[in-house]
What we know:
Elements: H1 3-14, H2 19-23, H3 25-34, H4 42-53, H5 57-69, H6 88-102, H7 116-123, H8 128-151, H9 157-165, H10 182-189
Amino acid sequence: MDNNLVYKWFSALLCYPEADLIAALPEFQAALNDSKLLAEHRGNLQGFLNYLGNRSLRELQENYVSTFDRNRNHALYIFEHVYGEDRDRGSAMVDLLEEYRSHGFELGDDELPDYLPALLEYFSQIPEDHAQKLLGDAVHVINHIANKLSGSESPYAALLKAIVALSPVEPQPLIEPPVRDMDEAMETFGPDMSGTEPLLKPSIETVQFYPKGSLKTAQSGAKK
């Protein structure tokens, strides 16, 4: 299993669990058994597959909602952890959408570009060197989420830790963003098309997975 297929493997497992995912567990197992890239984390990843295989679909779905939808610290939306509700989050969304479109990748109407499974799916469809570059940009945030999941003893931590290990860049700690007052943001920027989030204006020119000053260490080091 090469890097592109590995990204797809993780993307599927990080999505809301449905019956077809559980039915495909033998295929996920075979891919894990054959992957040299995942060998170092095979034990923990096997534990995650066992978790999926040993619980009812309803239990898996309830746990997924509890983990990711009801706990902001675990959100799989990359920009949630670095921009919070700051207006630069909208700029980053626009830039990431442009990144997707530059390689012919289109999201559904109800999908946000910073959703980690969508980002990993995108990595699976672009040249490996470019995917590695983008992963190196995003790894600080992914590692931040992984640490939060580990602190909550979530089985999903194994997935994110293994994704971090694929990065050519060593993750650095994030400074968590302040929570912006939502009423103030709505008054300043107005609602988006859904009427539930502030309409944010693009103001930066390149994809930014973290804003200036969000890393405690200014310069990230490449893995040896």
